[in-house]
Automatic annotation (TrEMBL), chain A:
The name this protein goes by in its record: Acyl-CoA dehydrogenase family protein
Pfam families the UniProt entry points to: Acyl-CoA_dh_1, Acyl-CoA_dh_N
PANTHER family per UniProt: ACYL-COA DEHYDROGENASE, ACYL-COA DEHYDROGENASE FADE28
Organism name: Pseudonocardia humida
Sorted UniProt keywords: FAD, Flavoprotein, Oxidoreductase
Boundaries of every Acyl-CoA dehydrogenase/oxidase N-terminal domain copy: 7-117
Automatic annotation (TrEMBL), chain B:
Pfam families attached to this UniProt entry: Acyl-CoA_dh_1, Acyl-CoA_dh_M, Acyl-CoA_dh_N
Needed cofactors: FAD
Domain of life: Bacteria
Limits of the Acyl-CoA dehydrogenase/oxidase C-terminal domain: 232-387
Protein name, per record: Acyl-CoA dehydrogenase family protein
Gene3D superfamilies membership: Acyl-CoA dehydrogenase/oxidase, N-terminal domain, Butyryl-CoA Dehydrogenase, subunit A, domain 2, Butyryl-CoA Dehydrogenase, subunit A, domain 3
Source organism: Pseudonocardia humida
């Protein structure tokens, strides 16, 4: 057991932090998120240049063959400065899904394109009227004369308007209602995308498919919910780290404010009611950090990554809400303004909390199996 | 970064598990598991078994019975002991006065006290808190005045845990009332509890039990050779001692045990025709507590893994704070599982209410102490805010 970063990992963190720190110091983030596509293409290219967009993929597929801990480092640095680049969505979730399911030929194009920064993929999965799920609900896939066509609406699709390629989940009635995955090109006929800004400064879209031609991702007519479950689990873990980065900044921003802001003739850190709340924020942060780190290590050890991700999801959800809300409260009115940073952290934490299942959702899943084990051994089965 | 224990540490864990579950008498472990009071004899017997195997004071210097283990091995030792329901070596001996004497005592004191302390031949109790010196310990007023080869001690201590079993007491006393800083005038004295002038008054707690006491000193004459270290340096030794007290204070293994019991009990209690464990609200409550405990354990492991350079990890202050809260949450959970049965708290052995349900509320009430002792949680928050967050 070893919970320390090695020299290479520390160097990676420094490099990422350098790149993103330059890109998003001061007011730059507000300018970037004000215009489409809601992130900075140059920074995205910079991430590609550093090999970060191919980090988790095998070298023969154009990736860097790194582990979940390295992905976690990047995600945490993204969260620290609230970089709006869709790293977890594009690389960990969509890229992970492609990498797991696609044929070699598809990977040659899609994974390699993602890694070199020339192709941004998005996963079109959520549908109005459904909650977090591994299955598609209303979008249908039908094969006619050798061509697959998709019909239905996906929304909200993160970065759905900017994406060069959409990976779309759809029900295949001919395969007994299995959820299958398809690649839809940006210029496909019958594809309508309406993008919009979301509260956290990122972008989502309504994606309408009207008999849109699509290419099955991978071979065979298998149900892909297991692959979706796993990719979502790895994305939940990466998001846990992104939120840790955001929580850490929200806390340091708050403590700096308490040290400098004066009321009643003294700085706010003279008020124990406030410093104790900051101490509790630190406790939440460190407990969540431990759980996120552990979940990444479970992924690396080949353990039960789905349960580990649920555990990290629950802990970071609770911590993110606690820290996000109290960061604003301890600032007072300025925390609610758009021109100050801290409220944007709360906004982003709230978005992360709802993208792949919130804390109660994760708790329901954990509660369903709580009787299956006497105790949890984080260093033993099923986690290692 | 690696999750798994090394083969050596895994073997160590198995060795500890096997020892604790086979060498410590089942009746003692059953008493701990049932959350019954463990008597003096069971404590002594257990500690002697551990000491004979070199497992009572592994954190002491090697020449006095220490084992030179890694912080991780010490963590595993403690966790496995708690999971196996083994009464831990008496903290007053092994975590408090023993390390102080080993670090600051003279040779005669080491020879005289350390082997007997490790083996629980001497049962120590703590004379730190006073009625007007709780969290603000340095305000203590018990005095020791030097007269020839003796100190004459007058004053009062309180919250002296298990003082009724104790042979000796280690005490903080004021030896220089004129010192500019109140911390500077404090010394550490040790003396037998049967010294003339020492009286003990038990304090009944809200669980009906007697585990803490007041101790009164009236012209107690203590030989000067029982001064530990230097005169007026007692505050340094107390800080050293309290630093040790916080080691292992997360009590993850013990809370795991409580939670595992709670899970089992929730399957035995029926509510509306089905096991209480199948109630979604109860299942969620257990699952959430289990996850919080996991987060605490992982934080303890992070702290352990990073403490090799001797400096405490900043997150270590989280351990006392959260560890105590989760102990309380687990005892509260068990009361709620017992439900109306919990009202039979003082029923006798002919009661039809199971023993665990009768014990539940007294234990829950007793456990209010854990967020108070060892540096109250408000003191911990002050430390986090000041030392870590710079507020």
């Amino acid at each position: 057991m070893d919970f320390s970063y090695d020299d290479e990992q520390n160097a990676l963190r420094q490099a990422v932090s350098g790149l993103l720190g330059r890109a998003y110091d001061g007011e730059k983030r507000r300018a970037v998120v004000a215009a489409d596509p809601g992130f900075d293409e140059k920074t995205w290219a910079g991430l590609a240049e550093m090999g970060l967009l191919g980090l988790p993929f095998a070298e023969e597929r154009g990736g860097a063959g790194a582990g979940q801990v390295e992905v976690a480092i990047v995600a945490e640095e993204i969260g620290r400065v609230l970089a709006p680049e869709p790293y977890v969505q594009a690389v960990v979730l969509t890229g992970g899904l492609i990498d797991a399911v696609a044929t070699d030929a598809q990977c040659d194009e899609l994974v390699a394109g993602l890694a070199e920064g020339s192709l941004v993929p998005a996963f079109a999965h959520a549908e109005p009227g459904t909650r977090w799920s591994t299955a598609a609900a209303g979008v249908r896939a039908v094969e006619e004369g050798g061509t697959w066509r998709l019909t239905g609406v996906k929304e909200p699709v993160p970065n759905g308007a900017r994406a060069d390629v959409l990976v779309v989940s759809a029900i295949d009635e001919a395969a007994g209602g299995a959820t299958r995955l398809f690649v839809v090109r940006a210029d496909a006929e019958g594809l309508t995308r309406v993008g919009y800004r979301t509260h956290d400064g990122t972008r989502a879209a309504k994606v309408e498919l009207a008999g849109t031609p699509a290419e099955p991702l991978g071979e065979g007519a298998d149900d892909r919910t297991a692959a979706i479950e796993r990719a979502q689990a790895l994305a939940r873990i990466a998001y846990a780290h992104e939120s840790i980065g955001a929580m850490a900044t929200a806390l340091t921003t708050t403590t700096e404010y308490l040290r400098t802001r004066k009321q009643f003739g003294v700085t706010l850190n003279k008020f124990q009611a406030l410093t104790f709340r900051a101490a509790d924020m630190y406790v939440s942060l460190e407990l969540a950090r431990s759980t996120a780190l552990w979940a990444s290590l479970v992924a690396g050890a080949g353990g039960d990554v789905v349960t580990a991700a649920d555990r990290a999801r629950l802990q970071t959800s609770r911590a993110g809400r606690h820290i996000g809300k109290d960061a604003i409260q301890l600032h007072g009115g300025i925390g609610v303004t758009a021109e100050y940073t801290v409220g944007h952290y709360t906004s982003r934490l709230t978005a992360i909390d709802h993208v792949l299942g919130d804390g109660d959702w994760a708790l329901d899943r954990l509660a369903a199996t709580v009787g299956d084990h006497e105790t949890v051994d984080p260093l033993g089965a099923p986690y290692t | 970064m690696r999750l798994q224990l090394s083969p050596e540490d895994e073997a160590f864990r198995q060795e500890m598990r096997t020892f604790f579950t086979t060498k410590v008498p089942q009746a003692t472990r059953d008493a701990v598991a049932a959350r019954r009071d463990v008597g003096r004899e069971q404590y002594v017997e257990t500690q002697r078994i551990l000491n004979a195997a070199g497992l009572a004071v592994p954190h002491w210097p090697v020449e006095w019975g220490g084992r030179d283990w890694t912080p991780l091995q010490r963590h595993i030792w403690r966790e496995e002991m708690q999971l196996a329901c083994v009464p831990e070596p008496l903290a007053f001996n092994t975590s408090m006065i023993g390390p102080v004497i080993a670090a600051f005592g003279d040779d005669a004191q080491k020879q005289r006290f350390l082997p007997a302390t490790a083996n629980l031949d001497i049962w120590w109790c703590q004379g730190f808190s006073e009625p007007d010196a709780g969290s603000d310990l340095a305000s203590l007023r018990t005095t020791a005045v030097r007269e020839g080869d003796e100190y004459v001690v007058n004053g009062q201590k309180t919250w002296t845990t298990l003082g009724q079993y104790a042979d000796w007491i280690f005490c903080l006393v004021r030896t220089d009332p004129t010192a500019e800083k109140k911390q500077r005038g404090i010394s550490m004295l040790v003396f037998p509890m049967d010294t003339p002038g020492v009286t003990l008054r038990p304090i009944e707690l809200i669980d009906g039990g007697f585990e803490v006491n007041e101790v009164f000193f009236e012209d107690v004459r203590v030989p000067a050779e029982y001064l530990i270290g230097e005169e007026n340096r007692g505050w340094d030794y107390a800080k050293f001692l309290l630093g040790n007290e916080r080691a292992g204070i997360a009590r993850v293994g013990a809370t795991k045990r409580l939670l595992a019991d709670a899970k089992q009990l929730a399957t035995e209690v029926r509510a509306d025709g089905r096991p209480l464990s199948e109630d979604p609200r109860m299942a969620a409550r257990i699952a959430e507590l289990e996850n919080e405990l996991l987060a605490l354990e992982l934080t303890a492991l992070r702290v352990v893994a990073h403490s090799t350079d001797g400096k405490p990890h900043p997150a270590s202050s989280v351990l006392k704070l959260r560890g105590s809260e989760l102990q309380q949450a687990a005892t509260e959970l068990i009361v709620d599982i017992a439900g109306p049965l919990s009202l039979a708290s003082f029923a006798g052995e002919d009661s039809q209410v199971p023993e665990w349900a009768r014990a539940a509320t007294p234990e829950y009430l007793n456990y209010r102490k854990v967020t108070i002792y060892g540096g109250s949680n408000e003191v911990q928050r002050t430390i986090i805010a000041g030392t870590i967050l710079g507020l």
